[in-house]
Predict the structure.
Amino acid sequence: MTVKAYEKPDAPELRISHMEPHTGLLGPGDRFVIWVHGCCFDCPGCLAHNTRFGAYETFDTDTLCERIVESRCDGLTLSGGEPFLQAAALRQLIDAVRDRRKMDVIVYSGFTLAELSAEDRFAPLLEVTDILIDGRYVRELDDGRPYIGSSNQVVHYLNPDCRPAGEAYYTTGGHRRAEIHFTPTQAVLIGVPSPATLAVWQQIKQKSEGTHHDF
Ligand code: SF4
């Protein structure tokens, strides 16, 4: 597994590849999902191509906080890209949101919990994470579990209060779910797709003359 030095360490502004309010993917309940930009890993088979090499927008805490609070979603999910590369800025955002609204926080990270616990720079985000799904994506260990990429990845219930809803969501079995969202200018794939959904998505990309994004 290749781990690259990331050229833009934590910055006061957040670099965001995409955000999606009101989705039932990537956690229990009605969720506001943010895909941060930039990753220090290079997992073969990574589907989040756009979060690593695509365009991104920068946001200040207040603007992003307003959007999240106004959505009235139950929870916030951070994916990427690698959220912990922006740990301090995301902590600032979560604190601002929680000053105004109760929201649980789920983080999908390529780092393992042991790696995150070993470095102080990750603590600001780890301290406020309720559920962590950790570890690199390993294509050979992709076992088709819903909502999780490969069998080495572990769901950690860091806040015991979030365990019942989390366990109900992550251990119910069933099949993978992903959504393809269309706007006038782009198509966006979100979630952890099944092979069938991925095949449809590849066809859309081949035929598309417009913009398409994998998140
Ligand atoms: S699968 Fe996740 S951790 Fe791995 S390169 Fe892609 S975004 Fe980074």
The longest strand covers residues 14-23. The domain at 14-174 is CATH 3.20.20.70 (TIM Barrel).
